[in-house]
Design a protein that fits this description.
The protein is α+β, with helices and mostly antiparallel strands and 64 residues long. The protein has two helices and four strands; from the N terminus they run βαββαβ. It has a four-stranded antiparallel sheet, with helices on one face. It is globular, with a radius of gyration of 10 Å.
């Protein structure tokens, strides 16, 4: 199962790396794909939505 989040504030490879690292540590995440052009983060796996949102926030970005 994949969930797509609209995320604000992403603009570069550093953003991709930071979000991929933080979200990748959430229990149950099996994959993370960041699309800068679309400003989205696609998360695969059976994960807690609040935990993913918190990880994105921890990386310094916001779910729109």
């Amino acid at each position: 199962m994949a969930t797509v989040y609209s995320v604000t504030g992403m603009s570069c490879q550093h953003c991709v790396d930071a979000i991929t690292s933080e979200v990748g540590q959430v229990t149950g995440v099996s994959g993370v794909a960041v699309d800068l052009a679309a400003s989205t983060v696609t998360v695969e796996g059976a994960v807690d939505d609040a935990a993913v949102r918190a990880a994105i926030d921890e990386a310094g970005y916001a779910v729109a």
